[in-house]
Amino acid sequence: MLPAPPRIFTIAPDRPFLATLARGLMRLAEGDPLRLPRVTVLLPTRRAVRGLREAFLRLCGEDESAGAPLLLPRLRPIGDLDADELAFDGGAGEGADDATLALPPAIPDLRRSLLLTRLVLEWSEREDSRSLLPGQAAALARALARLIDAAATEGADFARLKDLAPDDLAEHWQTVLRFLDILPTRWPALLEAEGALDPATRRNRLIARQAALWRRSPPRHPVVAAGLTGGIPALDELLGVVAGLAEGAVVLAGLDRSCDAAEWAEVAADPAHPQYLLARLLAALEISPDAVADWPERPPPSGREDRTRLVAQALRPAALTDAWRRLPPAPRAAVAGLGRYDCASPQDEAATVALLLRRQLEVPGATAALVTPDRELARRVAAELRRWGIDIDDSAGLPLNRTPPGAFLRLVLDLAASGLAPVPLLAALKHPLAAGGWAREEFRDRVRRLEQRVRGPRPAPGFAGLR
Fold first, then answer.
1. What is the pLDDT of residues 349-403, one digit of tens each?
2. Cβ count within 10 A of residue 368
3. Mind listing the pLDDT tens digit for each residue in 18-29?
4. Is 256 exposed, middle or buried (0-12, 13-18, 19+ CB in 10 A)?
5. From CA 277, how far away is CA 17, in angstroms rounded?
6. Contact assessment for residue 312 and residue 256, using Cβ atoms and an 8 Å cutoff
């Protein structure tokens, strides 16, 4: 008997992904309140898990039986894995096997950075009489950490580093190779001494173990992988296993099924294209885009199809943009609501975006989001909104140096590096976290008196100059 075709679905880009996913899962439960909590849903991040929980709450609020208790599915984030989170069902009800539980923990990021910094400093002392400064070594260590994770994600092997730069290339390429030789020769021994694994390596092993468990003993209850785009060989394998389960399903976000075979081949060859990872995943699963069904069923017209087609044309691969000449004029509905603002400065840009976001608060039930790769713009917009008492949820988080303790630490480092110069010294002492072991009021009074004393010519560096 031929195996069943993979169960691959998509949610159109003009549909709210999490809300549509929640409706499909409710339909999957078929009205049985005890069936839904047996469903396992794999999601990309913890943020997606929180968003799906909120989508279920909103869905219950829209239902006539609002207020009735609802048991949610088992929601598991793939992007932030722990051993007890991924190996949650070995198949016929058993938990993680011994091999999964014995997997070493991931090395903490700070510990890894410090160890790599030490290796970089040792290399610089051997390579050049002018050794690197600790700050320079730390920056190179962070770059090495990113390279380690990228190589683990792609399943690459550092043993082949020497093949990257032949001997006939410039000398600086050989210097780079000697530097990168830290990774295959020194780093594995340090990692083994720590009894840990690199985070990306551990994630790959956890995902591979889960795929092996489900392949050997398929789970008895539905498993749905939603919003995952692949791009990692181990994850592609897991999604293939889920798609082949009798009660499994893979739900993709916004798959463009309007492309013909030539366009899809160009997408699969262009890593910068938004659909590139989806193309790689479908190629790994050996399924064509037109064989992907709608989740949970073909939706009724939303009125945004013209906008969707316009965006799809705007995202055509560069090699096929000559087709733009043959496009008919865009319908009015495709550009309705679009606006363009020309701003004179970055601050004006942030203020304009903040005003547009604030205007949405005047519409009951409306939501808004800022999508930008510019972290400085996002921080400026957040600062502008805080002027009106509006706190936004920044999915990128807050850098340590932007938190109150991080800012205080930076000020302390500045005053130490400047030899207790008046301006850095007073900036650190006036920070709200500075108290010097005294009561806050007494400390502030002493700082004010010190400020009066240091006005005028700059004192000599250090505590002797202040005294």
1. 999 999 999 999 889 888 888 999 898 999 999 999 999 999 888 877 777 888 8
2. 13
3. 999 999 999 888
4. buried
5. 18
6. yes
pLDDT value at 113 more than 50: yes
Q: Mean pLDDT across the chain, nearest whole number?
A: 85
* 225 φ/ψ angles, rounded to the nearest 5 degrees: -105, 115
Asked whether the beta carbons of 360 and 366 are under 8 A apart, the reply is: yes
List the one residue out of 256, 365, 234, 235 whose CA is nearest residue 314: 256
Instruction: Give the mean model confidence (pLDDT) for residues 114-120.
Output: 94
What is d(CA 305, CA 311) in angstroms, rounded to the nearest whole number? 10
Non-local (6+) Cβ contacts of 204 within 8 A are 152, 153, 155, 232, 233, 234
- Residue 22: how many other CB atoms lie within 10 Å: 25
| β-bridge partners, 41 | 75, 224
Q: 110 has which bridge partners?
A: none
Nearest to 9 by CA among 305, 297, 312: 297
Can you give 264-308 as a three-state secondary structure string?
HHHHHCCCCCCCHHHHHHHHHHCCCHHHCEECCCCCCCCCCHHHH
CA neighbor of 313 nearest in space, from 375, 382, 245, 258? 258
Residue 120 has phi, psi (to 5 degrees) of -65, -40
> Coil, helix or strand for 52?
helix
Sign of CA dihedral 378, 384, 389, 390: negative
Q: What is the pTM of this model?
A: 0.77
Q: What is the pLDDT of residue 276?
A: 92
Task: Tell whether omega for the bond before 296 is within 30 degrees of 0, i.e. cis.
Answer: yes
- Span 136-150, pLDDT tens digits: 899 999 999 999 999
Indicate the Cα dihedral angle 135, 137, 142, 146, nearest 10°: 160
Query: Do 38 and 222 form a contact (C-beta atoms < 8 A)?
Result: yes
C-alpha dist (Å) from residue 173 to 147, 186, 292: 17, 20, 46
Neighbours of 191 (CB within 10 A): 18
Give whole-number Cα distances, 329 to 268, 314, 333, 334, 433, in Å: 28, 13, 11, 10, 60
CB 100 within 8 A of CB 89: no
